Amino acid sequence: MRRDAVRNRAAIVEAARGALDEHGGTVDVREIARRAGVGMGTLYRHFPAKEDLIAEVLHEQFTIWSATIRTAAATADPWTALTDFFDQALRGCAKQHAIMDSVAAGWSRPSAEAVVLGEIIDELLARAAGLLRPGVTRDDLLLMLQSLSCAVRVTQQSGRPRDRTAWNRLVRISLDGLRATHSDPLPQ
Amino acid sequence: MRRDAVRNRAAIVEAARGALDEHGGTVDVREIARRAGVGMGTLYRHFPAKEDLIAEVLHEQFTIWSATIRTAAATADPWTALTDFFDQALRGCAKQHAIMDSVAAGWSRPSAEAVVLGEIIDELLARAAGLLRPGVTRDDLLLMLQSLSCAVRVTQQSGRPRDRTAWNRLVRISLDGLRATHSDPLPQ
Amino acid sequence: MRRDAVRNRAAIVEAARGALDEHGGTVDVREIARRAGVGMGTLYRHFPAKEDLIAEVLHEQFTIWSATIRTAAATADPWTALTDFFDQALRGCAKQHAIMDSVAAGWSRPSAEAVVLGEIIDELLARAAGLLRPGVTRDDLLLMLQSLSCAVRVTQQSGRPRDRTAWNRLVRISLDGLRATHSDPLPQ
Amino acid sequence: MRRDAVRNRAAIVEAARGALDEHGGTVDVREIARRAGVGMGTLYRHFPAKEDLIAEVLHEQFTIWSATIRTAAATADPWTALTDFFDQALRGCAKQHAIMDSVAAGWSRPSAEAVVLGEIIDELLARAAGLLRPGVTRDDLLLMLQSLSCAVRVTQQSGRPRDRTAWNRLVRISLDGLRATHSDPLPQ
DNA sequence: TATGAATGAGACTTCATTCAT
DNA sequence: GATGAATGAAGTCTCATTCAT
Questions:
Q1: First-last CA distance in chain A
Q2: Which residues form the HTH tetR-type domain (chains A, B, C, D) (predicted)?
């Protein structure tokens, strides 16, 4: 691939990232092309459909994000690893709202993203085994993450975009609900 | 108001309810008119803009929903009242995904819906005071509800629409996180 | 015809008169029905099409108008009769812009209105014969009237609606151009 | 700008010119697109709103027209300049009825078009000063032009579109009314 | 008979995608 | 390979006219 083609592709993805975050999935592809400084033809050469471009943006974001949270999940203390994991994961969502959608989309038919997340979560579960209430599964944490990402999104809606307190409180509550203190069995 | 007008108005709202739930807010108004068995003019006579129709559907759903959860929140035992409240509220969301959006939309600037919910939650908080960890606020429960409604939505995505186990487990975990057992203060 | 039907018909015509003058020919028939205080069905019972209603309004206005100008044209002094005729005719146009349109519409295929006007003008021409330049015809005066009515309309456009000076000057100029002073033959 | 874009833009304007003249301002934009042989998107790429297209057509017509009448107004003999000016100006109106509307629209709040016309008229007035009755102003001639353009329009209505005699006679009469022969002061 | 709700063709405009330059 | 002009289906909404109540 020629060097300018590479540069164009990167510019398109970056433009799409910003545009998607500002306007959401209904953004006009022309807005993306304009931001990227390329013509429509160039955009469509790289991504045959708008959907493909969106998928690429998500994939890229997910890659960066998953690296971050994998690091956070590697903290020595198992419980801290769990809290750091949620904290970093949700900070990422705060910046790129679309990330979690790809995971959500893969709930019924597991996506590659969900698989990656699942692996990280499995690791966390294994390490924190003794600290958690019995019966907590990978899907529980995956769903909790999705759920909390919505809370992040809600609290970020224009008005007080920097307020992390609200969702931090909810994260604390939710994680406390996972502690071994709670010996009641979860619904099967 | 004439009897056929009443019937048509109801048919339009019902059609809109179904169409909005299936296709989301981008549904074509003609699809709604077709489902309702009326012409475009009839639809626009009752609702001068698409937005008004959507608002009406939400309002109607919210009214039914809030009555249900208010009843659930009136259960004798305070903790059961809390769990019933979440259970009924989320079952409603499971049927009508758009309900919670109106509450979410009112996070920064409180909507009428958010106010109604807030009152119910305040009542629950007052009654369950001794059973809850210190510092739990109305906003904590409101946000938790929003958050969990996303979990419901995710688990309902085409594939296994009837599976309530997944989100029921998450509700249990989250509510357990609210128990007085947890004496750590929440972030301010 | 029943008495209330007569009253309704009159109310419709009056409402249409006002509405047409305010909004022009593109006015919504519902606006007319609302002003008249009747339902659409009643309006359409009396006038099978919007066009018929407009025609009726014009006819009624024309009848009043033609009576006024016929009186003005009967002034003793022939030249004064001519000026009074134009003055009254154009004042009428100032109040009901649509009147002249019906005459204009009948230029190619003479309308009943044009015939009435023609008779008045013929009378004026006969009486003022010696005062006018040779060769002035009925059509000349008819067209002059139409032409000047446009001037009235233009000067009335929102801004300075009461200013009659501008078109009065033009009337004076135009009529002076008809005087016998000008012996040059007109183009045939 | 690409050559085909230029060609399309021109085709659209030309199509609009014809369509506006035939059907008036209520013409369907699709009719214009069809005539121009382009899609709706192309039309809207060049003119973001129907109104913009209409404005462009008027502007273009006015530009051609004003050049023509400016030339006519430059004839050596002052009185001939005046008659040529009216003759050319009204021939233009005969071809494009919408031209004069833009001037009319600017009567209360002077439009760019009215300013251009005013300058030409001022020049004519200055040169013909001695030949005109006292007190004739720019607005008198501007209004006369508007007025006569209506006469042109009326005589052109389907039936005998080529007959210039009728309005030529009226022009002659009106201009004769401007001659210095008439010493009566005009209404102030 | 009067009412006004219902009709539906058609108006303006947008935007994902294709293709001539 | 890049450009951005062109496409046209589809979207929301209006309004002259009809018809059930």
A1: 52
A2: 6-65
